């Protein structure tokens, strides 16, 4: 089952199965890369608010 990525109210959520292989440091880096690229492509700097 693939991960589900959701933008809601300027927040980013990831939902994926609770299997160890889906929650590794390598997967976290891939998720971060996808997040940064999505924000870059959208041009919406408000998504990066903390």
What does this structure look like?
The chain starts with a strand and ends in an 8-residue tail after the last helix. With 50 residues, the chain is an alpha+beta fold. The relative contact order is 0.17. The chain is built from 1 helix and 2 strands.
**Which bin fits the share of residues in helices?**
25-40%
Secondary structure category? alpha+beta
Total number of helical segments? 1
Q: Report the strand count.
A: 2
Write the layout of secondary structure elements.
Elements: E1 4-8, E2 11-15, H1 25-42
Antiparallel strand pairs: 1-2
Can you summarize this structure?
The chain is of the alpha+beta class and 50 residues long. Helices cover 36% and strands 20% of the residues. A hairpin with a 2-residue loop joins β1 and β2.
Keywords:
50 residues; 36% helix; alpha+beta; two-stranded antiparallel sheet
């Amino acid at each position: 089952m693939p991960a589900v990525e959701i933008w809601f109210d300027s927040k980013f959520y990831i939902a994926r199965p609770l299997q160890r292989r889906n929650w590794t440091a390598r997967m976290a880096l891939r998720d971060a890369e996808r997040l940064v690229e999505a924000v870059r492509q959208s041009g919406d700097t408000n998504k990066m608010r903390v």
